[in-house]
């Protein structure tokens, strides 16, 4: 897999851990994070960068690491075509991929430790989209992105 990864200042250590872990498993990882040390960086441009790489086909998936991951998930999901799952446990990682066909994994370094992050990433990468009834829901989400009402 080709994975674009980024992190704000809160997520640098966990991002670096995930990069090494992913590379050990044969994944091609592109570190797109700011490398300004401990300086505070805004996450919306970082999120846009990795999400655009997914949409442009330069990466199969993107991983984003923030403090809680909440703001990062919101920012990613503002980009049409992105389905970012805030994965703070293995169950949600499986649902994000299996039911929602998520193309961006978001997690929080203040909530998830390295071992759990590995389990989340492994589950997320191993889970295939289940299709079927979930496809109709993704079509509805796409309609919402286009500004259409479902009511």
Walk me through the structure.
With 151 residues, this protein is α/β, with parallel strands linked by helices. The protein has one domain (2-145): Sugar-phosphate isomerase, RpiB/LacA/LacB (Ribose 5-phosphate Isomerase B, Chain: A), CATH 3.40.1400.10. Helices cover 45% and strands 16% of the residues. It has helices at residues 12-24, 43-55, 70-76, 90-98, 114-126, 133-145, and strands spanning 2-7, 28-31, 61-66, 84-86, 104-108. It has a five-stranded parallel beta sheet with strand order 2-1-3-5-4, with helices on both faces. Helix 1 links the parallel strand 1 (2-7) and strand 2. Helix 1 packs across helix 5 and helix 4 runs parallel beside helix 5. The model has no long low-confidence stretch (mean pLDDT 95).
Descriptive terms for the model:
151 residues, alpha/beta, Ribose 5-phosphate Isomerase B, Chain: A, five-stranded parallel β-sheet, 5 strands, 16% strand, globular
- What is the mean pLDDT? 95
User: Can you list the strand order of the major beta sheet?
Assistant: 2-1-3-5-4
- Number of extended strands: 5
The helix count comes to: 6
How many domains in all? 1
The largest β sheet comes out as: 5 strands, parallel
CATH class: Alpha Beta
The shape, in one word, is: globular
Helicity level, as a percent range? Answer: 40-55%
The CATH H-level superfamily is: Sugar-phosphate isomerase, RpiB/LacA/LacB
Unreliable residue runs = none
What would CATH call the architecture?
A: 3-Layer(aba) Sandwich
Query: First CA to last CA: what distance?
Result: 38 Å
Structural class: alpha/beta
